[in-house]
Write a structure and sequence with these properties.
With 613 residues, this protein is mainly α. The protein has 21 helices and 13 strands. The strands form 6 sheets. The chain has a 3-stranded antiparallel beta sheet, with no helix packed on it. A two-stranded antiparallel sheet has the order 1-2. The chain has a two-stranded antiparallel sheet with strand order 3-8. The chain is globular, with a radius of gyration of 25 Å.
Length: 613
């Protein structure tokens, strides 16, 4: 399905009418407010107001920042960091951002524009004489869910933030202080619980999962509840959670249960097909995806700044790569029989002639999306604007949230929790491997609360890696610092062991050997997962022209080792530079400072205090 043009024509129209540029982040007074009674008099007009909220996903603040390139480096996705801070998004990746970083202002302002758009729509619908109509209830749910989603992102980056549920108009105070994020989350959860029953399922709403629907809102309630029941970083640099956290695990359990059991959804039998559908512009509203941000061709950066790397050149597909590659420690954590590995981790790229080429071990691509699968190539000079949708939530995510909540509430895994983990793993392995990789594996980790929880931590990495939600999980689990320390130690060992031939990772290849076949695909000598015991014939060795069908050597795990210092390579030393604790005991400093312009325009109501700012 690719019938989204009308959605974004309306969205662009409403955005142009309703939004104005602002000097202060809350100064979003709309010149269209005088027409609010007309706009929300019926659902045919009201839908335009709600679509204006979706329009904010088309801004750079979301497409090339918040969605996938704004997150700090984790144990899964890691963006390349330079020799010194450079006041770019790389400083966010390394947890070194200052209040002068322009990306902070860009995302903050876009978030509050979207929230104000949602506030306008909510007020208009609630005051409409048609508010009781089924179509208006659906629109109200969409507006409230989109508002909640933006607040969820804000609190995960900035902690306590200004909280407003009414549209800003002339005469309103523009100088709001911070509201406790616990209050924000509790309010939003109750807000969504009140509107969810009046919403339509994806099967019954126009555009399906390209619009917010009932099962997604149920899943969003579960996600917000786990965040409310999880840990947060406080200004004194301590991680804590509220005493009533189990109340929110119960909410998460109950609403995840609704998603799983009330709608007859099943996982797509093919993990790869979930993402291939998005690359092919196919919208599947019946299986995995609960909600995905819709991008018309010409919009969206999926396949440009995340996905299979393609060099510009002698073809019509343009260019793209992955800003936030996957760590080698993550890639090599997969069971080699896990079918998700081949889709998630891209060990190769495509050059200017669409010939496969090796990729650096420190630049492992996220292979879920590929611009080469687009039904209509976007042209040789194209880059952005692929029209590939971005998933916000999938069914397997909810299944694992459900298993997590069941495990926490019952002090160990229940039968339902075990069934969810098995369901996710069954798709990951061929049926002839289920006995060992599903039944035996799950039985071994289901012998206690901690073991099962740790299995879920790993499973969420393997199932959701590359979708850029890992750091939200690590925050609420209070595992961010620990996982950084583990990743650094493992990467250092992988590099040193592979080069020196001793240690637990001595079997990993320090170099790889490859050649290109006539069909332009790459052929590895031996395995990329184990060191070769014999040396292959090398191309142009010992002299140029020798062994024309020989192999080429490429540095691999050796790139993780500095042979001069006899220690970790710069990649390991720089990627998490803002986190200083090698033991992983200290909290990761994931909270961002407010941009200096936000502080100055608040006239003293907002400050950068605590968090070592």
């Amino acid at each position: 399905m690719r019938n989204k043009l009308s959605l974004y024509i309306y969205a662009a129209f409403c955005f142009a009418v309703a939004a104005t540029s602002c000097k202060k982040f809350l100064d979003t007074d709309s010149p269209s407010n005088f027409t609010q009674e007309y706009i929300y008099a019926n659902s045919n007009e009201a839908v335009k107001g709600v679509y204006s909220i979706y329009a904010l996903f088309n801004q750079d603040a979301f497409t090339s920042r918040l969605s996938d390139s704004f997150i700090p480096n984790t144990d899964v996705e890691v963006g390349g960091v330079g020799a010194a801070p450079d006041n770019s998004r790389r400083d966010i990746w390394s947890m070194e951002a200052t209040d002068a970083n322009g990306d902070l202002r860009t995302v903050w302002e876009n978030a509050y524009k979207a929230i104000n758009m949602a506030n306008i729509a909510v007020e208009g619908i609630e005051q409409s004489p048609k508010a009781a109509d089924a179509s208006m209830k659906q629109l109200l749910g969409e507006a409230k869910a989109l508002r909640a989603l933006w607040y969820y992102w804000l609190i995960n980056y900035w902690g306590d933030v200004p909280f407003k549920l009414k549209p800003t108009r002339g005469g309103d105070s523009l100088y709001l202080g911070r509201t406790d994020r616990g209050v924000i989350l509790s309010t939003l959860i109750q807000d969504l619980m009140s509107v969810e029953p009046g919403m339509k399922s994806a099967a019954d709403v126009e555009y399906g999962v390209e619009r917010v629907n009932r099962e997604f809102v149920q899943g969003l309630i579960a996600r917000l509840a786990l965040c409310r029941g999880g840990y947060w970083l406080y200004p004194d640099m301590a991680m804590r959670r509220k005493e009533d956290y189990k109340d929110y695990y119960q909410i998460a359990r109950d609403y995840a249960h609704k998603v799983i059991y009330d709608w007859g959804r099943i996982l797509n039998p093919s993990f790869a097909a979930v993402f291939d559908n998005e690359s092919k512009w196919i919208v599947d509203s019946k299986s995995d995806v609960l909600y995905e941000v819709a991008f018309q061709p010409g919009f969206g950066d999926v396949g440009w700044n995340i996905g299979m790397a393609v060099d510009a050149g002698d073809h019509n597909y343009g260019s793209g790569s992955t800003y936030k590659p996957l760590t080698p420690s993550y890639a090599y954590s997969f069971d080699t029989l896990d079918t998700r590995l081949a889709k998630t981790v891209a060990f190769i790229k495509y050059d200017k002639t669409l010939t496969q080429a090796p990729i650096a071990v420190t630049s492992l691509g996220i292979g879920n999306w590929s611009r080469l699968l687009m039904p209509t190539p976007s042209g040789p000079t194209s880059a952005k604007g692929t029209g590939i949708n971005w998933p916000i939530m999938r069914l397997s995510d909810v299944m694992l949230m459900y298993a997590e909540a069941e495990n926490e509430l019952n002090n160990g895994p229940t039968g339902d929790a075990i069934a969810m983990l098995k369901t996710v793993r069954k798709r990951a392995f061929s049926s002839d491997n289920w006995a060992a990789k599903v039944d035996a594996y799950v039985a071994a980790v289901a012998n206690g609360k901690e073991a099962f929880f740790n299995a879920l931590v790993n499973e969420r990495a393997w199932e959701l890696g590359g979708e850029c939600i890992r750091h939200y999980d690590l925050i609420r689990w209070n595992l961010f610092g620990k996982k950084i320390a583990e990743a650094k130690a493992k990467l250092a060992q992988m590099g040193e062991n592979s080069v020196n031939g001793a240690g637990p990772y001595d079997y990993l290849p320090d170099n790889l050997f490859y050649r290109i076949k006539t069909d332009k695909t790459i052929e590895w000598f031996g395995s990329i997962f184990r060191k070769n015991t014999v040396m292959p014939p090398l191309k142009d060795s010992p002299s140029k022209g020798d062994n024309p069908n020989g192999y080429t050597r490429a540095s691999w795990m050796s790139a993780l080792y500095n042979s001069t210092t006899k220690g970790p390579a710069d990649y390991i030393l720089r990627s998490w530079r803002g986190y200083k604790d090698e033991t992983g005991s200290a909290p990761a400093p994931y909270i961002l400072p407010l941009h200096s312009s936000v502080v100055s325009s608040s006239l003293g109501t907002l400050k950068n205090e605590g968090y070592y700012f």
